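Support request from a user on the community tier.

User writes: "When I paste my structure tokens into the form, the page sometimes reloads and wipes my input. The last time it worked, I copied everything first. Here is what I submitted, just in case something in the input itself triggers the reload:"
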């Protein structure tokens, strides 16, 4: 059952998607793509987003067969209650892991750049408490917050990239296709499987759209905006650092640290950048905590997902503290990548094929 706090507009869905995928991964993205493609990472990014659109189209086509139902309900109709429950639990765990990683990376970055003496545990708990309070009010308030915080994300990206333009060495972006086009194709397809975990969100969020028929346009617009952001950030970061981008764990944050503003209007641009980035991180955490609570609430047939947001807090808190250092947080990212690829590519494709073979379709007049 959907409430008034569940319905969101098409534009809100675009922003929810963009904010959801740009919390922590965007800070390491230039290093990750440069390591596999060199300066041709922008080509891999294009291939990745085209592949993601194809995958999202599969998810949307599947979801349209079951109006007003999330995949928690219709996967059990397609493959049975036992297997459907296993799929749902896997998805719920997946979103819990993402929430834990986001809040841990948030705390690690803030500790390195801003609050050096503050314990990581304090920052994680503070962020989770704020997130639980907002998440309990439903999807629509989260979408409204995304609308408010999206301009901050745009400002942060524009600030860093604009003032970094004068430090770009064009030779750092050459040669184009120096190793051939194949590494870029492989890197793009691999990234479409393992990265950008918000891609799985349409499994749950499609019925919450006021106009579900716009889902394909929404996914195309969201991916296009995200692609523009990521290609810009990659080109500017690599243009400034060149091969040294591999030496920085968070190269985008380091770019903000090294960029100088003429006239010294702002002594430390990275403080402004990280201030805006905190808002993006909060939005992403809200979205993934909501998805986790919603998936389990639908599984247990609870009236409201808000009943599970507070019980999830200690679980996310404990998981976020398991990695002993920032490097080991990458293990969580690897696990998420595998689960996300399975939930985004394999599960919807199999469900769609089975639903088509068994002629399972809940749309009005579909089986007439």
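"...and here is what came back when it finally went through:"
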């Amino acid at each position: 059952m959907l409430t008034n706090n569940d319905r969101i507009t098409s534009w809100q869905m675009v922003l929810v998607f963009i904010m959801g995928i740009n919390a922590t991964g965007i800070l390491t993205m230039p290093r990750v793509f440069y390591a596999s493609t060199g300066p041709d990472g922008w080509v891999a990014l294009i291939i990745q987003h085209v592949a993601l659109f194809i995958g999202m189209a599969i998810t949307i086509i599947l979801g349209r067969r079951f109006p007003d139902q999330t995949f928690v309900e219709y996967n059990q109709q397609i493959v049975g209650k036992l297997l459907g429950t296993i799929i749902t639990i896997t998805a719920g765990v997946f979103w819990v892991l993402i929430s834990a990683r986001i809040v841990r990376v948030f705390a690690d970055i803030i500790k390195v750049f801003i609050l050096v003496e503050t314990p990581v545990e304090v920052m994680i708990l503070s962020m989770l408490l704020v997130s639980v309070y907002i998440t309990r009010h439903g999807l629509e308030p989260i979408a409204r917050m995304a609308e408010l915080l999206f301009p901050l994300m745009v400002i942060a990206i524009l600030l860093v990239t604009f003032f970094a333009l004068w430090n770009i060495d064009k030779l750092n972006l050459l040669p184009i296709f120096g190793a051939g086009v194949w590494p870029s194709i492989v890197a793009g397809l691999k990234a479409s499987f393992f990265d950008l975990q918000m891609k799985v969100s349409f499994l749950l969020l499609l019925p919450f759209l006021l106009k579900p028929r716009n889902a394909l346009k929404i996914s195309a617009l969201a991916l296009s905006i995200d692609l523009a952001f990521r290609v810009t950030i990659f080109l500017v970061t690599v243009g400034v650092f060149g091969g040294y981008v591999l030496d920085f764990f968070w190269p985008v944050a380091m770019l903000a640290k090294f960029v100088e503003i003429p006239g010294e209007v702002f002594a430390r641009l990275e403080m402004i950048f990280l201030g805006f980035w905190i808002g993006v991180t909060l939005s992403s955490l809200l979205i993934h905590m909501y998805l986790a609570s919603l998936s389990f609430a639908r599984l247990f047939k609870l009236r409201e997902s808000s009943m599970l947001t507070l019980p999830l807090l200690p679980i996310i808190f404990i998981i976020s503290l398991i990695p002993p250092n920032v490097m080991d947080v990458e293990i969580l990212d690897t696990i998420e990548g595998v689960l996300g690829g399975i939930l985004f590519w394999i599960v919807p494709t199999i469900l769609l094929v089975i639903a088509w073979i068994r002629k399972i379709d809940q749309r009005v007049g579909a089986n007439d």
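Agent notes: The reload is a front-end session timeout and is unrelated to the input. The mean pLDDT is 88. The chain has one domain: 10-358. Escalated to web team.
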